[in-house]
Structure prediction request, 438 residues.
Amino acid sequence: MVEIKNLSFGYNGKTILRNINLKISERERVVLLGVNGCGKSTLLKIMNGLIFAESGEFFFRGLLINSDYFKNPENRRSFRSSVVMLFQSPDVMLFNPTVYDEVAFGMRQMKKDEKEIKERVEELLNTFGLTKYRESPPFELSGGEKQKLALAAILAIRPNLVLLDEPMANLDPKSQGEVIDLLYELDITTVISTHNLSMAPELGERTILLSESHEILYDGEINSLLNNEELLIKANLVHRHRHRHKEIDHTHYHKH
Amino acid sequence: MKERIKLLLYLSAVLLLTIIHSEIFYLALLLILIISDLSFFRRSFKRILFSFIVFNVVISLSYLLFTFFRSDIDTGYILLINLRVLTITCLTFFFASHTNLPLALSFSETFSYLFTLSYSQIQNYIRTYSDLKEAHASRIIVREKTHIKILIERVINLFFTKSLYNAKETSLAMRSRGFLDG
Ligand SMILES: Nc1ncnc2c1ncn2[C@@H]1O[C@H](COP(=O)(O)OP(=O)(O)O)[C@@H](O)[C@H]1O
Ligand SMILES: [Mg+2]
Prediction:
C-alpha cells in the first residue's frame, strides 16, 4: 500500500529524515517510535502528501506522490479521501463552526446525501462521547475532547490509511483505553507515532524505530525490540536513574 | 565583549541613520554592508525584500494618507524614507546573522531573557502557522473558494486566542521565576 524508497528530507539544510526505506501492506498496524525531534511527524506528513521528499520516493498504491501529482484535482480527491492524518496538536485541525459540522466536513465535500451524513456523524459523536457538544464550537472543548473530535472527523470519511501523530498524548488514561480499543476494531491500515515505549505494544504489531540521527534503527516485531536493550539505549528510549529498594542503592535501565 | 561592541555599533548606526537625512550617506552605508558579505546578502535577498516591502507599504501609505489633505506631497521625502528603511532592514538582518544576540544582550538578565522569550515565541508562531496550513490541506478533498476564507478566519482566530493564552502563560511563568514582582 505504501512504499518509501531511499527518502531523505530536511528543513533549512538540516537533515530530518535520512535514507528511509519501508513498505507497508494493507491492514498492517505500524507503530512509529522515537524520541522527540527524531522526525516522526515529518515522516507522517510525507505519507500524507503534505511535504515532499528532497530525494527518494513515496508511493501510495503504486502511484508516485509528489507535488505534480496534486496538480490534478481528481488525484487530490482520490488521495485525500483515502489517506487521512491526525496532527499532533488537534487545535490546528479544527476549523468548523460546530462539532457536528467538523465531523460532517469531509463527507460534505464528497457530496454524500445529508441523511447518510447525519447518521454517520451521530454514530461517531456517540462513539467518542461527544454527542452533548453537537452544537458547540470546537474551540470550547478540552484538549482531550478536541483530540477525539479530530479523530472522529478524519474517520468519518472511511479512509483506507490512517496516520496518527501521538494520538495518546492529550488523552487521560480512560480515553486512551477507549481509543486503543476503537482503533483495534477498525480494520484498516494505521501508522501511529509515539515516543512512549510502553504504549507501543498497544498500538500495533510492527514497530519502526527512528534514531536521533534520523535513520531507521529497527523495523519488525515489537516484542523482539522490547528485549533488545542495546537498541533501546541507542534510540535513547530507556534511561538510567538511581533509586532505592530498602537499604540497597542501585541503578538499572527503565522502559518509560 | 565582542558581541557587545557589535551591538553598540549597530545601535549607533541606526541612530545615525535616523538623524542624518542624506541619500548619499544611506547609499554608501548600504554599499559597504553588501560588499562586506556578498554571499550573505545573496542568500537573504528574498527575506530582506519581503520585510522591506511590508515596512515600506505601511510607512509610505501612512505618509501618503497623512499628506492627503495637504497638497504638498514630497516624493523626494518618500524616496528618502524608503532608502532609510532599506538600509536599516539590511543592517538589521546583517547584524542579527553576524551576532550572537543572547550573548550581546547578556549584560542584562532581563534583556537576554526577553530576547529568548520572544524568539521562541516567534518560532512557535511560525510552526503553528505551517501546521495549520498543512492540516487544512490535509482535510481538503475538493478545493472550493470558501475553503480559503475558512483558513484565513482560522489563522486569525487561532493566533488571537493563542496570543492571549500565551501572554497569560508567559507572565505567569515570569512571575513564578520572580521576574515581574519588582
Ligand atoms: N516546519 C518546520 N520548520 C523547521 N524545522 C522543523 C519544522 N517542523 C519540524 N522541524 C524540526 O524537525 C525536527 C523533527 O521534527 P518532528 O518531525 O516534529 O519530530 P518528532 O515528531 O519526532 O518529534 C525537529 O528538530 C524540529 O525542530
Ligand atoms: Mg512530532
